[in-house]
Amino acid sequence: MTSAALLVLAVAGLAADDQKEIKVLIITGDHGHDWKATTPFIRDFLTKAGMKVDVTETPRKDLTTANLAKYDVLLLNYKDTNKGAPDTRWSEENKQAFAEAVKGGKGLLVYHHASSAFVGGSAFDREFERIIAGGWRKQGNHGKRHVFTVTIRNLDHPITKGMPAEFKHSNDELYQNSVMLPGSIVLATAYSDKSIDPKNSGKHEPVVWVAHYGKGRVCENVLGHDVEAMKSPGFQALMIRGIEWCATGKAQAPLPAELK
């Protein structure tokens, strides 16, 4: 076979790899927020973006090494509230399978209040904070919901490349005082305005950042308290591209017209 023919095959192989369907598992089922509304909404817009999305509402059954191996990215829409059904509670084996999957190279997208899961102080809880790259944990807070501007801080990262420097976001909660671990890269912030609520910090707060845990790529997006907040085109673009980056290290989804 000629070198030219080999090159054509190589390029075709790369193109096929680029178009490979990303398989996502949304982990939910026990949460202080309305996961029964947010989960299908997320599933719908990720599916429309060309991804294969499954949902588990029974992590105790489904967070196994064998099952997690089927997916490219795990999406956490979960908090352990001690109010869920028995099958929503993570066993020690579930926790180990989850940690090993991400450490071994599985992508992880941490959505909104999931960054406040597992804060009890156990060895796993401390490790979970490292796995998910910090976030709300115990000390996080927010002021009154309001419409705010998201500022892109890193226009060179695959997730945010090509996005406008700023965009108007929905009426939403603006998390503040999040734990930021060494090595995390902040992609987007929003200003926590004291004139809106005296509880606010009066500074730009990180709302989207990325990190690594072992070989796994991790993206935390703390926007999107509910379905209304998630209707923001900017939020959806950041989530879709965040999933892509977690899976492949690239982000190729086109931006919606509102962001061009």
Short description:
With 260 residues, the protein is an alpha/beta fold. Helix content is 30%, strand content 22%.
Walk me through this protein's architecture.
This protein is α/β, with parallel strands linked by helices. 30% of the residues lie in helices and 22% in strands. The protein contains eight helices and nine strands. It has a nine-stranded mixed β-sheet with strand order 2-1-3-4-9-8-7-5-6. Strand 8 and strand 9 form a beta hairpin. The protein is globular and about 45 Å long. Mean pLDDT is 92; it is low at 1-17.
Q: What spatial order of strands do you see in the largest sheet?
A: 2-1-3-4-9-8-7-5-6
**Count of alpha and pi helical runs:** 8
Number of strands: 9
The helicity comes to 25-40%
How would you state the average pLDDT, rounded? 92
- Secondary-structure element string: HEHEHHEHEHEEEEEHH
Which structural class do the helices and strands define?
alpha/beta
> What form results from the Cα inertia axes?
globular
Task: Report the end-to-end length measured between terminal Cα atoms.
Answer: 44 Å
**Biggest sheet overview:** 9 strands, mixed
Unreliable residue stretches: 1-17
Name the descriptors:
single chain, 30% helix, globular
Topology, please?
Layout (H helix, E strand, L loop, with lengths): L2 H16 L4 E5 L7 H14 L3 E5 L2 H4 L2 H4 L4 E4 L15 H12 L3 E5 L11 H9 L14 E7 L13 E7 L12 E7 L12 E10 L2 E6 L5 H4 L2 H16 L12
Parallel strand pairs: 1-2, 1-3, 3-4, 4-9
Antiparallel strand pairs: 5-6, 5-7, 7-8, 8-9
